[in-house]
Amino acid sequence: MSLVWLLVSWLVLPSGGSPPGGLPAVEPEDLESLDPLLVELVEERAAAVAASPGDAGAHGELALVYEANRMWPEARASYENAVRLAPGDLPWRFHLALTRRQTGDFEGALALYRALAAERPDFAPAAQRLGEALLEAGEVAAARAAFEKLIELAPRAPHGYAGLGDAFLRQGDAAAAATALEHAVALAPGYRAARYLLGTAYLRLGRRDEAERELARGVGAAVEQLPDPLAPRLETYAVGLTDRLSRAGAEIAAGRPERAAALLEEARTVHPANVTLLNNLAIAYLRQGRLDEARELLDEARRREPAKFSTYLNLASWALRAGRLDEALGFAADAVARAPDLAQPHLTRAEILARRGRFDDARGSYRRAIDLAPDLLPAWLGLARVSHALGERDDARAALAEARRIAPRHPLVLRLEEELRQGE
Amino acid sequence: MRAISLAAALLGLGAGPPATPAPEPWFEEVAEASGVVFDHVRGMPARFWFPEIMAGGGCWLDAEGDGDLDLFLVQGGPLTPAPAAPPHRLYRNQGDGTFADEEVAAGGFGMGCAVGDYDGDGDDDLYVTRVGPNALYRNEEGVFRDVAAAAGVAHPGWGSSAAFLDVEGDGDLDLFVVNYVRWSPEREIVCSQGSDRDYCQPANYNAPAPDVLYVNEGGVFRDATLASGVARAFGNGLGVTVGDFDGDGRPDLYVANDGDPNQLWINQGGGVFADRALLSGVAVNRQGVAEAGMGVAAVDVENDGDLDLFVTHLRDETNTLYVNQGGWFDDATAQAGLAAPSIGSTGFGLGFADFDHDGELDLYVANGRVSRALAPLADDPYAEPDQLFRGLGGGRFAEVAGAGLAASLVDAGRAAALADYDGDGDVDVLVVNNGGRARLLRNRAARGRWVMFRVTDRHGHVAAGALVGVRVADRWQWRVVQRAASYLASHDPRVHFGLGAAERVDEAGVVWPWGRRESFGGFAAGAVHELRETTRAASGVENVVE
């Protein structure tokens, strides 16, 4: 089905009542150009729609596939279908509002959030989205009411207090904002957006030191939303390579390399030549101790793209795990040669030199990494360690101070502080 | 107002001011008719090398010193090999609303440009950023010659925007160069957006590039990046502008970064800068999220005599208006009516001007995607409509339908550079489009009276960062002398004021870079006047030059 036709259909089709015989599945014009795993999923869900064209759930599931893979116009069109077939079905309407915003229809999204919040005042995700949209629309008093409602619905979540604090700030009431935001931070100390807003409130109140601390803790926040009932399904539908790599990275970071490997092995069946995938799969294998398989992948990656510096970093990591320090140093040097203006190769080389006890050389590499990335925490920590090992305590303290500036409560910073204190 | 609100409510709308109908177009697209036929070359189709999608710069300058503004447009190309790079274009203003086209050898994939008289010989020179090394075109009686290597400014990185400014107050122009990402063809990676191949985002490379400060030492530059402190913080830099943001008399710098916190480099004197973005509230958005900063402008939207900041961002983020509250900035985007309308577009170049001469600043934003649209609005999947916002007063804006054009233009907008190129006293707009044709939007909206000032310091340089005010009766309007702003662009160096029905301004005042304040007398509307820094105030002296 032509997407152009679908866009027209939003304008001309009557909005009330379900059409007799149901609705056809929304499919992109260029289906064959998509990631093969995604094509498979779309075809599967589109077939379900074809089998039951009057089933709102079938259209909604297809919409979820599109939304999970950021195919917003198709997602919106599919949710429109689901809502036409089941106008009272909350999840589809909620996600229709999300996709309206993503397709640039801010007013349409806001209107739907208002309607949802009025009809389903117990649905916290809609209250949150409504509050945020009202803030963006400049309707601060209404936004405040939405966040107050959200606090009623989800009193243990920080989102309502954070939104309320933001609304108070916009109304110029920094003291009330600080109170709300302190509550949000108490509920979720890691909720960076609340910390940043709290820092702003402190700044307005003239509490500069506290402001500086909270702003530093909050900067780099990500947008956080209350999960809605469909959120878990979205994740399982994100099958594009970028999403898989991202999910695999998260699994590795969470200490689940076997899950990462499974995700990437499946993706490799359709992306056998992708060097980024080969590298990531090798990392998953390394974390599981599957050294031979990792090395095989890295050699293939090197063969396919000899200039890719990250492959050599992973080869260095492989050599370290294999206990081959000299080889590791060689691979790190290869990475530096291919990307001399990036910090990571210098950092890796420094770490290996430090392990070899070549502290003076390691210090030079740490400093080069810091020149290239002034806020690179591991480099400052490493520099502090090697400076300490070289007996240069002032330098060690200065490097530790920089690490503390970057991440004052980071466990590695605290541990090194303790080590250096004991060493003195 | 009541009727509009009620109508909006009946439609289930009600968020922000509704788009203002445009009974008559504000602009007429005249590029081809004016002799400006410039097709930007994005690069190799289907290769998706990152620089390709970010390019498209343009600058207004007076190449011959004849008083009218010429146009320099920066070409992209195939990226490699360098000798095959298509030429940049210099469009020389013929004085009758048309331009004569001239090639300028490019020598590489161009990004943006900055204009300033770096050698103090009284004419405009050009700095062109590239995917390394950058070029400095010295103006030799209207002919441009690349002297970057000899001048010490041929930086090899991927340059984006740049700005000339006098950081030390010694009377010559120094140069700040914003760098984006440490990229090379060997580091290119494969990205997709859930569908087929597309351009990557800067975070995929995890390689932000440090910016560079060059200090002018008699026409040759010294790299003062480390000594000045500007190496201490950087991100994926795209936009830069100059102004005295803390009111201490020294010119400061603001750098917009793509996905990293921005920097507000406050000039400490002695050529040293300190980043105050975080404590000033302009590093990230109001929730602490580092957004995709693209273009930037210093502007006084409230007419209270201090500089606010406006930054364009990626779609799904809002553009951001930071209002200066004296020591800190407040994100006032939503209150200004600029949040909701910007969520659906990716903003790049921009410019504030009083296009309709009603005494309120308006805003033009050039939009264009960086990832392909699955339901494209034009042949180019990266194309989006630009936006025009009419100033309502009190720091509020309302979108004008169709960006003020009779027929919408949908392109992948990048640079937007403002100038009165045709000398009729109103402000026109140049938009450079990535992989598309440049647009020249001739102003048709101006109804009221106007006045312009050419503002030069005691050395005769354009006084970049000076704040200029005019008073009509008891109302002041303020503008900043701002060439370097927007995205990959350089504006008309003159300041422009719409005056409505007023026939003259009663008073003009300047806060010069380095803090001196000077008051001038009244000036007639309908002319370009010169305000030159003197050693004593020239109150009451009317110095009409045109």
Would you spell out the secondary-structure blueprint of this structure?
The complex is a heterodimer of chains A (424) and B (546).
Chain A: H1 3-12, H2 36-51, H3 56-68, H4 72-85, H5 90-102, H6 106-119, H7 124-136, H8 140-153, H9 159-170, H10 174-187, H11 192-204, H12 208-218, H13 231-237, H14 241-253, H15 257-268, H16 275-287, H17 291-304, H18 309-321, H19 325-338, H20 343-355, H21 359-372, H22 377-389, H23 393-406, H24 411-423
Chain B: H1 2-10, E1 27-29, H2 50-54, E2 58-61, E3 70-73, E4 88-93, E5 99-104, E6 110-116, E7 125-130, E8 135-140, E9 143-146, H3 148-151, E10 159-165, E11 174-179, E12 191-192, E13 197-198, H4 202-205, E14 212-216, E15 221-223, H5 225-228, E16 237-243, E17 252-257, E18 263-269, E19 272-275, H6 277-280, E20 296-299, E21 308-311, E22 320-324, E23 329-331, E24 347-353, E25 362-367, E26 384-385, E27 387-393, E28 396-400, E29 410-411, E30 413-419, E31 428-433, E32 439-443, E33 449-456, E34 467-472, E35 475-480, E36 484-485, E37 489-490, E38 495-500, E39 504-505, E40 507-511, E41 517-520, E42 523-524, E43 528-532
Parallel strand pairs in B: 2-37, 33-43
Antiparallel strand pairs in B: 1-32, 2-3, 3-4, 4-5, 6-7, 7-8, 8-9, 10-11, 11-14, 12-13, 14-15, 16-17, 17-18, 18-19, 20-21, 21-22, 22-23, 24-25, 25-27, 26-29, 27-28, 30-31, 31-32, 33-38, 34-35, 34-40, 36-37, 39-42, 40-41
Q: Can you walk through the features of this model?
A:
The complex is a heterodimer of chains A (424) and B (546). Chain A is an all-alpha fold and 424 residues long. Helices cover 73% and strands 0% of the residues of chain A. Chain A is built from 24 helices and no strands. In chain A, α3 crosses α13. Chain A is flat, with a radius of gyration of 26 Å. By secondary structure, chain B is mainly beta. Chain B contains 6 helices and 43 strands. The interface between A and B is large, with 77 and 51 residues.
